[in-house]
Amino acid sequence: MKAIIMAGGEGSRLRPLTCDMPKPMVPVMNVPIMEHIVNLLKSHGITEIGVTLMYLPQKIKDYFGNGSHFGVNIHYFTEDTPLGTAGSVKNAEEFLDETFIVISGDSLTDMNIAQAIEFHKSKKSKATLVLTRVDVPLEYGVVITDKKGAITGFLEKPSWSEVFSDTVNTGTYILEPEVLNYMEKGEKTDFSQDLFPLLLDKREPMFGCIMSDYWCDIGDLQAYLQAHYDALEGKVKLNMALTEIKEGIWVGNGAIIDPHAVLNPPCVIGDNCRIGSGAVIDSFSILGSNNVIEDEATIKRSVLWNGNYIEYGSEIRGAILCNKINLKHYVRIFENAVVGDNCTINERAILKPNIKIWPQKTVDPLAIVDRNIIWGSRHSKTIFGENGLSGIINVDISPEFATRLGAAYGSIFKKGSKVIVSSTTSNSARMFKHAFISGMLSVGVEVFNMSSLLTPISRHAISFLSVEGGIHIKLSDDNPNKLRVDFMDAKGASISRVMERKIENSFFREDFKRCSGEEISRLNNITDFKNYYVRSILNEIDTDAIRSKAPKICIVSPSDFVISIVVPMLTDLGCKVASFSSSNLNEIDTIVDEIKSNNASFAAFIDSNGETLVLIDKNGNTVKDDMFISLTSLISFKANPGSKVVVPITAPSIIEIMAEKYHGKVVRTKTSPQAVMEQMLNHNLFKNRENMNQFLLNFDALAGLVKILEFFCVKDTTLSETLKEIPDFYVSKKKIFCPWELKGRVMRNLITEKNGEKVELLDGVKFILENGWALILPDADLPLCRIYSEGETPNVAETISEKYLEKIKVIINS
User: Fold this and answer.
1) Is there a cis peptide before residue 16, judged by omega within 30 degrees of 0?
2) d(CA 563, CA 392)
3) This prediction's pTM
4) Which of 250, 267, 387, 611 has the fewest CB atoms within 10 Å, i.e. is most exposed?
5) Alpha-carbon Rg of the chain, whole angstroms?
6) Is the torsion defined by CA of 26, 77, 73, 99 positive or negative?
C-alpha cells in the first residue's frame, strides 16, 4: 500500500511557531510532527510515500530528502497554487495506482493503521474515513454513521445546536484510486466539503472506522503544548532517541547536567544541552538540542526548541520558546506565551500570559510586555558597550557577525593599511579571530595574524610593528561562554568612542569598501612574538637592581599560558619564583600559606588575559581596585617627584594627599578604561622613560609586575612597608536597578534638587560634601545606576551611599 502525507499546511493559528517553517516541521518531542507520521507508516510496512507540499516546501525536502535516511521512499508533489486537501492528492494521481492511505502531516497519532486497512477491505469501501470521538466537536468535521459504519452525513465545524454526534473526522482516509476520477486536476477541491459529499450523493460505498487510539489535531498553541504533555504521560507512543536516565527523565547525547541541578519527571533534555547549578527543569518540560540553562534558572511545563541561551535566574512557566532565543538575567515568561526565533529578551523583562512575540524581536530591559509584538522590531544601534565589545559565543557574537564587524572595522582605514589580529589560546577565540581576519582582508586591509597572545602583548605588537590598529579576542574570566573583543588604535590603547561610532555606522549600513580579488593582501603569520615583548620589558628596567636583591615571589594565575611567560621572565631576572594555577582569588589563606612556605615577599595574581594584577602580602592584605590605583600612584610619585598621575573620578581622594606630599599632580578622568588610557597617553606617560610608565602599571599585569619589583629593589623596600605609606580611605559602592527610560530623569532631578552641595559633571554627577563625596553614574550596558561614595569613616561612606540610594528610589517610584 502507498501513502500520501498532506504537508502543505501553513499553520497560521500556530504562529509565531510557523512564521519561518511549515506546520509539519514544527517539532513535537524534539522531532518534526511529520517525522512521527513517517515512522508510524513505516511501522505498518508502508514505505512508498507521496508528500503534497505548498507552504515553504524546500524546508520539508531539505529535511526528509528522498526518505532513505528514514527507511522509506518519498516522492514530492508541489502545488503552485492552493488546490485544497483533495485537489493536492489529485495532483499526485500518477503515483496512486493502488489502494492508498491519506494522512495529515500535522496531526499527532499512534493509530492502528493496519486495523483501519482491514476494516476498509472488509467493507469493500471506496473511501474509509478514520474517525474518533471527542468531548467538544465544535472545531472538527462531524461525521454521522449508521450502525454498520456506513456514512450518512457530514457537518463541518457545527454550532452546539448542530452537534448530532461526537464522532469527528481525523483527516486520515483509506481510498481506492478510482475516487480521484470524481475530481478535475488543477481545480481546488476539499475532501470534507466537496469530494465526500459527492461520493455520498453518488451512493459510492463509504464507511467510517471509529478508532480509540490517540489522535491530536495540533491546530493551535494550546493543543501543541497539550500534545507534549500527553506524550510525557505516555498517552501516545512515540519513538524517542533518548536515554531514560531515571524514571520519567529522558536525556540526549552529550548533555551536561550539573549535579546540583534539579530534574523533576517527566521531562526531556535534548542532545548537547548544558544545565547549570541550581537550575530546575520541572515536570512536563521539553528541551531541544544545544540549549544552555544557566544557574538558578527554572523551567516549568514549557517547550524549548534548539539553541536557546537562558541566563541566570530566568523563569519560564508554561511557555514555548522557538530557536536561538537569548533570555538575559531574571527574565520571567508566563503561561501560553510564545517567543519566535532569534529574539532577545533583556534583563528582568516580563512577558505576561498569552503574549506572542514574532521572530527577530528585541525586548528592552525591565519591560513588561502585555501585548503581542508582531510588526516592527527594536534593533540596537550600538555594538560597543562601556568596556568594548562582549557577548555570548554564538548567541550575541557569531562567526557571521564577526566577519561583518571585521569588514566594518577595516573600512575605517585606507586600503593597504596594516592591522594586527590576535587571540588567546582558547579554540573559541581562535575561531573568531579567523572570522575577523576574513572580514578585514575582504576590504583590502593587510593583516598580521599573531599567534596566541595576551592583551598587553597585542598592545605592544601594534607599536612594535607600526601598524594602524588591532583586534584582540579573548574569553571572559567569569564566563567561558562569553567572548570579549578589544579594538585598539595605533598607540595600542582602546579605540575612542568616535571610532566606535564609525565602526557601528559602517556595520549597520553595511558600507564596506569591498576590494577586488587582486587587491586582497596575503595574510602575514607571526609566531612567538611574546619573546620580543619580554625582551622589550627587560630593556626598560634596572635589571641589576633586581638581580642584586633576588626577590622571592609567588605567581598565581588561572592561565598556564600566563605562567609560562611570567615565570621564565622573572627567573631570568634572578628572582626565585613559585607558581601555581588558581582561578579563585578568594582563597587568600591558601595564597598566604604559599607565600610563607616559599619565604616569598608577596604573591601576584594575574588574570588569564594578562591585564589585571592583584598583589597579596605576607599578612593577607589584598591590593586591588582602589588600593591598587593608590599603590601605583604612590610608586609614580616616589619614583619621579613632581610627576602626573591619571586616575578615574571614582578613585579615593587620598591620591591628592599623596600628590601634595611629593609635589605631584592628579588628573581625573571618566571611569571607562578607554578614557583613562587616552589621558595617560595624552600626558606622555607612555613614551617618557623618565617617568614611571603608569600605562603599563595599570593595563599590563606582566610589565606592571616587573616595574613594581624594580621599584621595591631600587628603593630597598617591600610591599607591606609601601602599603603603610598609603593613608586610610573608606569607600562604598552600590547599585540600584533603574529603567533605561528613567535614567535621564534621575540625573536631572539629582542635579536640580541639590541642597547646596558642590557638583562636578565630568562623568555622571559627583556631589562634593564636607565629610566626603558621592558619585551617581548611570551604567552604559545595564538598566541600573551605580553609586560610589567616600567618607571619613566606613560608617560615613555607607551613610552617604544610602542617602543617594534613597533619593534615586524616590525619583524612580514617583
Assistant:
1) yes
2) 27
3) 0.70
4) 387
5) 34
6) positive
